[in-house]
Design goal:
Length: 103
């Protein structure tokens, strides 16, 4: 996997994590709204030219709001956001080291 493909994958992972946090917060904010149906994020990997190219996220309607599920979703979003941010940080250091070697 190239550095740019890894960066693209990490960026789409960050976007997916942010969307998960946003949807969970929206669901919690509307827990008392009559007839409100929780939203859910469905994620899948996508492939370009035979290699992983990132995460594709879709928001779909779910059922009633389950606060415990929303807490798990928020925690998952935080952990995956942190992991993808570390990937981006590592890729930055790798790129810097590569440029230092070439200089």
């Amino acid at each position: 996997m190239s550095l740019s493909a890894a960066m693209s994958t990490a960026i789409t992972g960050l976007q997916d994590s942010a969307l998960r946090a946003q949807v969970a917060a929206f669901n919690v904010a509307n827990v008392s709204t009559p007839d409100f149906k929780a939203q859910k994020v469905q994620s899948s990997s996508y492939v370009a030219n035979g290699a992983g190219a990132g995460v594709r996220s879709t928001v779909v309607e779910g059922g009633p709001v389950d606060l415990a599920e929303q807490l798990v979703n928020m925690n998952f979003a935080e952990v995956t956001y942190t992991a993808n941010a570390k990937v981006i940080s590592t890729l930055g250091r790798m790129t810097g080291a590569t440029l230092d070697i070439l200089a």
